Amino acid sequence: QVQLVESGGGLVQPGGSLRLSCAASGSIFSIYAMGWYRQTPGKQRELVAMFNRDGSTIYADSVKGRFTISRDNAKNTVYLQMNSLKPEDTAVYYCYADIMIDYARRYDYWGQGTQVTVSS
Hints:
Radius of gyration: 14 Å
């Protein structure tokens, strides 16, 4: 019913930049939250950046000042601009959304993940 499609991952050198995009499509009545998590092998998935419904944002301490989340409400799309990338930012990045599909039903959705590798 709802799909999250991510794009923009890849290989970048330390200090470089990447921009991730995530577009939500399908039966969307309202988006409560939308943003990004990341995961490395053997570790739990961690929050990177998130938009709440009121437009406020949350960032992981490790990315504050380097990453910026933005959105295009008309397109149900969020972006993650990642600057000054470090090797420890290497991970699979997952788009997440908390979406109401009608007046009564609200679910969590995840994208397929996109690999970000920071290496020289």
